């Protein structure tokens, strides 16, 4: 009889265990979570040229010299030894570029190191600099104005003429 009682107890416990396991929710046997996917479309970055970099009207002499225009909004040419303003000096100012895009986004700016100005067979070279540093920057406003200035090297007895040259400023998102 004792053996039969043990079987009855075991059967009763097994049934209780089965009923208890059947009541366990699926969350105890596994779990899941929900994720979110996002995307942001930014405004394309752009750059447009405004005012030309102008060193003004100048006279050369038997001594080489320079004409300097700062990379600022109110820049005018400053002439070094060997170079002087011709008459009123003509118009001189920094070049301007307008950079547009999404504010707060990092971009790379490249202003070339120099530009060659030609007049027929004659030439002069200007080193260039920008009001915004070359390399990685963050667009703080759109549009942002970039001023480009430079130092024009004028040769001794530089030939008279109207000199010009082009340079490309580039911007790209990082």
Query: What is the terminal separation in angstroms?
Result: 85 Å
* Cα radius of gyration in angstroms: 37 Å
Instruction: Please name the CATH architecture.
Output: Sandwich
CATH class: Mainly Beta
The SSE string, one letter per element, is HHEEEEEEEEEEEEEE
Strand content: 35-45%
Structure description:
With 174 residues, the protein is mostly beta strands. The chain has one domain (46-173): Immunoglobulin-like (Sandwich), CATH 2.60.40. 14% of the residues lie in helices and 38% in strands. The strands form four sheets. Strands 1, 4, 5, 8, 10, 11 and 13 form a seven-stranded antiparallel β-sheet that branches. The longest helix has 21 residues, at 2-22. The radius of gyration is 37 Å and the shape is elongated.
Name its key features.
mainly beta, Immunoglobulin-like, three-stranded antiparallel β-sheet, seven-stranded antiparallel β-sheet, 2 helices, 174 residues
In short:
The chain is mainly β. The protein contains two helices and 14 strands; from the N terminus they run H-H-E-E-E-E-E-E-E-E-E-E-E-E-E-E. A hairpin with an 8-residue loop joins strand 4 (65-69) and strand 5.
């Amino acid at each position: 009889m004792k053996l039969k009682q043990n079987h009855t107890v075991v059967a009763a416990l097994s049934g209780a265990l089965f009923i208890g396991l059947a009541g366990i929710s699926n969350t105890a046997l596994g779990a899941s979570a929900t994720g979110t996917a996002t995307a942001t479309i930014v405004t394309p970055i752009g750059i447009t040229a405004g005012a030309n970099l102008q060193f003004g009207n100048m006279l050369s002499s038997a001594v080489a010299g320079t004409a300097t225009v700062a990379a600022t909004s109110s820049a005018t040419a400053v002439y070094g030894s060997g170079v002087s303003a011709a008459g009123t000096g003509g118009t001189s100012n920094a070049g301007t570029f307008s950079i547009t895009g999404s504010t707060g986004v990092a971009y790379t700016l490249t202003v070339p190191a120099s530009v060659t100005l030609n007049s027929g067979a004659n030439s002069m070279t200007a080193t260039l600099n920008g009001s915004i540093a070359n390399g990685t920057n963050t667009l703080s406003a759109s549009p942002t104005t970039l001023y480009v200035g430079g130092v024009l090297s004028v040769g001794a007895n530089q030939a008279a003429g109207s000199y010009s040259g082009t340079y490309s400023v580039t911007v790209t998102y990082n």
